[in-house]
Write a structure and sequence with these properties.
Beta-Lactamase, 5 helices, 4-stranded antiparallel beta sheet, 40% helix, alpha+beta, 19% strand
Length: 143
């Protein structure tokens, strides 16, 4: 099987997947009593779904999107990157060196299917560890 044929076999992240991720993250946050914003991006960085709870702080919409973008671009959970941007870390200058909306705060996760990167989810509005937990809960529901 050629590489191109194999790549085509991977189902991309769909709008239905994205909406399911948003619903699952919001459900987890609601159970914890936290108002959040959730952003889901496809593999190309295009927004597939976004939702900000009425009670969520306004900036959470921007932070959820930036967390998703960062997780997508680096194919890593943003929680794993926090130390990398500290002084002396390997990515210390990355946030200012690139003209990209990167955010190195926990709450962004890449989304994989069959080992391939197909998108990302970002959650904002809670404490960073809460946002990470809500995003993780959402991804665990994706089939």
């Amino acid at each position: 099987m050629s590489t191109i044929a194999h790549a085509a076999a991977i189902t991309p992240l769909t709008t239905a997947d994205a909406e399911a991720l948003v619903d699952a993250a919001r459900s987890a946050a609601e159970a914890a009593g936290v108002a959040i914003s959730v952003t889901v991006l496809d593999a190309g960085g295009h927004m597939l779904a976004f939702r900000r709870d009425d009670r969520a702080v306004l900036i959470s919409g921007e932070t959820s999107t930036r967390k998703a973008f960062t997780a997508l671009q680096l194919d890593a959970p943003t929680a794993d990157l926090v130390d990398a941007v500290q002084p002396g870390g390997p990515f210390h200058t990355l946030p200012t060196a690139l003209d990209r909306p990167l955010l190195f705060i926990a709450g962004g996760l890449p989304v994989h299917r069959d080992g391939r990167l197909i998108g990302a989810i970002g959650v904002g509005g809670g404490a960073p560890e809460q946002d990470h937990a809500f995003a993780t809960a959402a991804i665990s529901t994706l089939s």
